Amino acid sequence: MAIATINPATGETVKTFTELTEAEVRDRIGIAHDRWQTYRRTTFAERAALLHATADLLEKEADDVARMMTTEMGKTLASARAEALKSAKGMRYYADHAEEFLADEPLPDPSVVGASRALGRYQPLGVVLAVMPWNFPLWQVMRFAAPALMAGNVGLLKHASNVPQCALYLEDVFRRGGFEEGCFQTLLVSSRQVEPILRDARVAAATLTGSEPAGRSVAAICGDEVKHTVLELGGSDPFVVMPSADLDRAAETAVTARTQNNGQSCIAAKRFIVHTDVYDEFARKFVERMRALTVGDPFDDNTKVGPLATEQGRADVEELVDEAVSAGATVLCGGQRPDGRGWFYPPTVITDITREMRIFTEEVFGPVASLYRVTDLDEALEIANATSFGLGSNAWTEDAEEIERFIDDLDAGQVFINGMTVSYPELPFGGVKRSGYGRELSSHGIREFCNLKTVWVG
Question: How far apart are CA 378 and CA 382, in angstroms?
Fold first, then answer.
């Protein structure tokens, strides 16, 4: 894929960029490694001051940054601005809490191991490569960059090829925030250059958010090199509705959970599993709300769903829906590509899905909801867990016993009861099964890129 800004609302190429040469990439890695030798010795207070200054700039420039994000990947302007502000919030969170999260962990009684002093100390790993996706072009990066920098690491960013302006902005804003050259660099490179970067001895670790094939590739290379990785891959999150649920709130939230970011979110609810006692009523409320959403220009304040980010992305969504319909599935709303420019696809609800259909097992990365009818809690859990993914999950019930069953038995990295899955700086974020491993955010996220060194003093 060419490195270019292509407006998904029009299909027009706005700007193209030249890929770095292999020699230029090696030089950038050298700059990062050299900078780490000094940056790792800065204090938490010094790093926090830099991160707060960078957050100040991002907040000040949020409107301009939002327009850039909307132009590059099509999210609505309101959601783009919210993402910019959330990214600044995440930076401040780690600036304020990193020292606490990475404090020494002394053994209360070191004499039990024959020492006068014994503890665990968190220390930075070095140069960390981040391979990041286009769907949240600032927030995904900040989930890695803020904790990594506060831990004393330095970062290299290989961003998605369709958001180069966002990628370059991130390097620029860190520099203007006061971080010295080499602390955070953007590498405008294609995916073919990722392997030599990972195999460079000066790169200590990697993190990737993206597709399962991309995660497999990075994990395999880093496994061969014995380097630490964190992977956040796809999701096919269940959204279970039981008879005791508040159906109006559940249906309203379901629409947002499915269509957030134009339906292009790993933690978007994708499979709506509804108890038969409330299935018809929930389906009616849900479909009415999905059908009422305004699809159009993401710069228009009235638009609720913008275009999909890439032409291929829309083709993939269409293929899954069309295959299901040809095999007997029923479309309750949407399901047809609109005429005109841009890569738009309407909010769609599809039901009568069987296990033989690809849509039953594959992630649909667009505003398409799969609707299932179940007879009891056990069947709901069985269908919810009948996926190779395990990122987020949602369940709606007021029954205390059902709540505990969902918490214990939903096979996912996150369970949200009577609400939609959201990433918060304060809570760990990640998945199980083929949704990846490791955790971002909270204290766990910053410790992923540290060596927990055991210290024993006789």
Answer: 6
Which of 183, 222, 266, 450 is flagged as catalytic? 266
Phi-psi region of 425 (alpha: psi -120 to 50; beta: other; left: phi over 0): alpha
The yes-or-no answer on residue 166 being catalytic is no
Q: Phi then psi for 39, rounded to 5 degrees?
A: -65, -35
Do residues 218 and 67 make contact, with C-beta atoms less than 8 angstroms apart?
A: no
Phi, psi of 113 (to 5 degrees): -110, 20
Q: Is 115 exposed, middle or buried (0-12, 13-18, 19+ CB in 10 A)?
A: middle
Retrieve residue 272's tokens. Answer: 């709506």
The secondary element (H helix, E strand) that includes residue 86 is helix 77-101
Q: What does the pLDDT read at residue 166?
A: 98
Cα first-last separation, the chain: 58
- Asked whether residue 347 is domain-assigned, the answer is yes
Q: Does some domain include residue 430? A: no
Longest dimension (CA), the chain: 76
- Is 232 designated active site? yes
Instruction: Judge if 325 and 208 occupy the same domain.
Output: no
Does the residue 429 lie in any domain? no
Parallel, antiparallel or unpaired: strands 117-124 and 330-333: unpaired
Strands (E) across 61-110 are located at 105-106
Reported as type and span, the H/E element at residue 150 is helix 139-151
Do residue 205 and residue 256 come from a single domain?
Answer: no
Residues 10-45 pLDDT 10s: 999 999 999 999 999 999 999 999 999 999 999 999
> Which structural domain, as residue segments, surrounds residue 339?
237-424
What angle in degrees, to the nearest 10, is found between the helix axes of 139-151 and 77-101?
Answer: 20
The predicted model scores a pTM of 0.97
Instruction: Please report, for residues 9, 208, 220, the alpha-carbon distance to residue 228 in angstroms, rounded to integers and kept in the order given.
Output: 38, 11, 11
Number of domains observed in the structure of the chain: 2
Amino acid letter at 386?
A: A
**Which amino acid is residue 115, in one-letter code?**
A
Q: Which residues pair with 394 in a beta bridge?
A: 239, 416
174 and 280 inside one domain? no
Confidence of residue 1 (pLDDT cuts 50, 70, 90): confident
Rounded Cα distance between 5 and 13, Å, is 6
Catalytic choice (232, 362, 363, 448): 232
Report if residue 218 sits inside a domain: yes
In terms of domains, do 176 and 291 share one?
A: no
Confidence at residue 52, expressed as pLDDT on a 0 to 100 scale: 98
